[in-house]
Amino acid sequence: MNELANSFAFNNAWLIPALPFFSFLVVGLFIRPVSDKLAGIVATLSVATAAFLSIWLAFDYFSAFPAGAEHPGLISWSFEWLRYEEHLAVNVGVLVDSLSILLMVVVTFVSSLVHLYSIGYMKGEDGYGRYFTYLNLFTFSMLGLVVAPNILQTYVFWELVGVSSFLLIGFYYTKPSAVSASKKAFIVTRFADLFFLIGVLLIAVVGYNAMSMFGAPGSLPDNVSAFDFSYLTSSGVSIMMNNLGLLTPAMILIFIGAAGKSALFPLHIWLPDAMEGPTPVSALIHAATMVVAGVYLVARLFMPFAASGTALLVAGYVGAFTCLFAAVIACTQDDIKRVLAYSTLSQIGYMIFALGVASATETLGYTASLFHLFTHAFFKALLFLGAGAVIHAVHTNNIWNMGGLAKKMPITNITFLIATLAISGVWPFAGFFSKDEIIASAFGTHHYVIFAVGLLVAGITAFYMFRIYIVTFLGKARSEAVNKAHEAPMTMTIPLIILAALSAVAGFVHFGDFVSVGAESGHAEGGFPIWIPALLSGLSGIAIAWFIYAGNSERSKALTERLGAIYRVIYAKFYIDEIYLFVTHKIIFRFISAPIAWFDKRIVDGGVDLTGWMTRRGGAVFSRLQTGQAQTYTTWMVNGVIAVAVLIWIFVS
Amino acid sequence: MSFSPELHHWLILSTILFSIGIYGVLTRRNAVGVLMSVELLLNSAAMNFLIFNHYASKPFIDGAIMALFIIAVAAAEAVIAMALFVAIFRSRKTVDVTQINTLKG
Q1: Closest by Cβ to A628, choosing from B22, B34, B103
Q2: What CATH code is carried by the domain that includes residue B56?
Q3: Distances from the Cα of A30 to the Cαs of A174, A193, A508, in angstroms?
Q4: A35 touching chain B per CB within 8 A
Q5: Could you tell me if residue B22 is inside a domain?
Q6: What is the tally of structural domains in chain B?
Q7: Which residues on A lie below 8 Å from B102 (Cβ)?
Q8: Which long-range contacts (CB under 8 A, 24 or more apart) does A162-165 make?
Q9: Which residue of B has its CA nearest to A624?
Q10: More exposed terminus of chain B, fewer Cβ within 10 Å: N or C?
Q11: Using the beta-carbon criterion (under 8 Å), do B101 and A631 form an inter-chain contact?
């Protein structure tokens, strides 16, 4: 019995992931073949109901455990799925705590807006019903992932997320680029998931050993399993596991899995290509949900990460590098969705390094990271949906074919501007607060290199975001399509407006009072207001973008020429894709795969073929003995009798 | 000087008879020839019974009885075999055993 025993939303929290799942089945099997329109409506309503339930659940939970109080993890519903041994069982269920509530609200909310938006955006496309089926499946997978009370359930849904994102990215399966993008996304994330799986097994082994040596903490229920997050993240347990060794490799392996899903360097290559999917999918998967799964995972396992220390530091530096790296690339791209993709990479980098600089005692980074996850989900989804509205109107992704859209699409313009200001960290928009908190946490924990990166990237972010804003919406129309452009339909603008409102005000939530880790929510203050340099950095980025791109395009061309080779390297995304191709084709394929394939074809298959060949030849030879001539048989029989007689004569006498 | 045959002389005779029979069974192409050779085999076996009866168990006539059995069986066998040959000849117009090879593998 607990404080939420009478809460309808808590007792039925399993409905939150189950609703999209049932809708996936019903829409996919029964409605899709009959009516496209109904498919869209049912899919949207189911996710909207899930969103409603999550918000209700959040309300009940934070009423029972008000801001500032401790926020315990409660199991709303669970059943034993697999049982290996006592204390080594997989209990599938729904875990309710502040972190899962945060993710549930964000995922269901953004997902339902994306569903609504897609009703307008996908109108008239082939596979309309199929699209909503996939979208439901994806939402279900993501929700199953965030409510998982144990790491194995997380892993199962982690893979489901991978599959459903594969289906969505490759939605236009007649387009070769979409097909290869979906394969790339699947293979890269799957490659990372292999390490994740090894990490899961390793941490379960370490956790199980720790439990058999020291027993489980008394505060946990008797049937606690070594897979359970409640066990793995108890602070005492994490430290015990670290003392047993192997925790650091386990956490680094798990972090590789997180890096794959969150597209951190060097596993980021799939995300920009994933823009081949429909734009609302990019908004859902590549802004608010799938790519933050890695952040979620590190946050969920924050205590073991913090106990290991090294693993968290690795995460911090990988995050900071990705943050800077992706931001630099974003400045040069011409495809509006690709700029947003790289900006997503960069913002995910922020979240990861914020977690990386935090520790068990200095937990501001943890709160800041999830705060940024929260605000980023809104403004990035808004940016993608805004970009989708623009692409829908002008039928091109290239920003240099746009321009002057502000007059044609007033609602899109305003909402996109709000999102741009939010991501640039301008007061009073949401990004200002969360980004400021991240930078302050890096400064407060004396990670000055990461702090400097954070501050610099704040400026670069503002620069590239205003670059695309100015080029897309201001100035003169640069193509015929712009003149024909008109505002998107209501189903598309309503989500934009809702997200814009949230992007504007989400920053005022006292987030740390709701989502924090450890006993105290540590507030690492830098000694001086960090927001001043952060804001200045953002504003100078805006000013530079304005100077270069507003008015005529002479200055940007001159700048491009001045930078020359540097520009080309950045434009080619530092040739990371080419390096991957070189490594896979020239090294792995030639020196590992080709010999293995040869061995498989010649030795393994050859062995099998040889057996078959020998049987056939043997049959041909022996079938000649069967002549059908009774006299031949008799000859053999006589010979046999003679042989037997000779043998008897030899051995008996 | 009169020649009185011993046991081994009789056995050599039956072996010669048997060998001629085997040779005939293996080489005759006409099914009737094969059947006749089989008769030789049976008779050599019957002869052996009589020989051993004569030399090994004089007061009893077990061997002679077995020989009578063999003669009876040989008669029955000859009847069945001849009936088969007639049937085969009706369907295949030949009793050449090398032509009767439908069980060839």
Answers
A1: B103
A2: 1.10.287.3510
A3: 25, 33, 44
A4: no
A5: yes
A6: 1
A7: 628
A8: A162/A186, A162/A189, A162/A190, A162/A193, A162/A261, A164/A134, A164/A137, A164/A138, A165/A138, A165/A189, A165/A274, A165/A285, A165/A290
A9: B105
A10: N
A11: no
Rounded-to-integer distance, Cα B22 and Cα B67, Å: 19
Residue B1 domain-assigned?
no
> Does some domain include residue B100?
no
Reported pTM: 0.78
**B37, B98, B102, best to mutate vs chain A, most A CBs in 10 Å:** B98
Q: CB–CB of A83/A130 below 8 Å?
A: no
Contact B97, B29 (CB under 8 A): yes
Task: Give chain B positions within 8 Å (CB) of A631.
Answer: 25-27, 34, 97-98
Successive 10-residue mean pLDDT values, chain A, 653 residues: 74 88 90 84 91 90 79 81 81 87 90 88 83 91 90 91 90 88 89 91 85 77 80 79 82 90 85 85 83 89 86 89 89 86 89 86 83 89 88 83 80 89 84 84 84 88 88 79 77 87 82 66 54 82 81 72 77 80 82 88 91 93 84 90 94 85
Residue in this structure with the two tokens 């702090």, named with its chain if needed: A451
Cβ <8 Å between A625 and B105: yes
- ipTM for the predicted complex comes to 0.85
Domain span holding position B22: 7-92
Indicate yes or no: CB of B100 within 8 angstroms of CB of A630: yes
